[in-house]
Amino acid sequence: MPRKIIIDTDPGQDDAVAILLALASPELEVLSLTAVAGNVPLALTQKNARIIVDLAGRQTPVYAGCDRPLTRPLVTAEHVHGKTGLDGIPLPDPTHPLQPQHAVDHIIDTLRAHPAGTITLCPLGPLTNIATAFTRAPDIVPKVAEIVLMGGGYFEGGNITPAAEFNIYVDPEAADIVFKSGAPLVVMPLDVTHKALTSRPWVEGMRALGTPVGQAVASWTDFFERFDTAKYGSEGAPLHDPCVIAYLLQPALFTGRHINVEIETGSELTLGMTVADWWHVTGREPNAMFMGGVDREGFYRLLTERLGRL
Fold it and tell me: Among 3.90.245.10, 3.90.226.10, 3.20.20.150, 3.90.1300.10, what is the CATH number of 3-307?
């Protein structure tokens, strides 16, 4: 039986690669893509999600969700992803339709309609949609099998401020709700994603597939690699969001610890920080499997094999 997942996303080139990886993998049944404002505003994230479904040749329903964080103005990341969020290769406007229902209502209805423990939520952006659903319908929280998300950082610090990773920083109040929800959490922080760096041979291998998907992935990677290599002085760029989907497919690629993670919502200096009790010094109950390591070669082998199927 394939694992049923909902991908909550703000595409974003690395979101796009994660979505393509999921759509290429028969072990996963992608029930829907729910778009949230994040890397770019909602009008673009829902459009980009539909473009990616078209590119994959699938019919996965796309729902638009929250267009701003719970209590704060929206912060976006065009400086990384370009003005469309999918800069790097010109892609046609989507033919795939947008569903009329709001993403939050869709998440609530879907979890209520399925047996407990059968749906995994995969947030790749700010946690606004998930937190809104949990607040509006607390009865769905115990029904979630697992939440596997990209967000946060501890040993790597932050990528939007010195202390905070972008997804958590954009809506720290939403992250706080999700991390305190009691739902089983697996977290892919910068500590892992910064070890999942692209390489020139891998990017050229994608291009050499000669498929529309291979061309798009190579071009997207070229685009945001320029930003990341300048910033980190590294050889490649981190593919953050695909780590979430890779974990669902091959959890043994990742290592981490089950620890307590709290979200900072009050400090000007460290707003959005994921305060990870890696050394178990607080006595607080663990609430998240917080990953720290990845088998990079295995990760890229998986990506190559799956993306080559589309």
Answer: 3.90.245.10
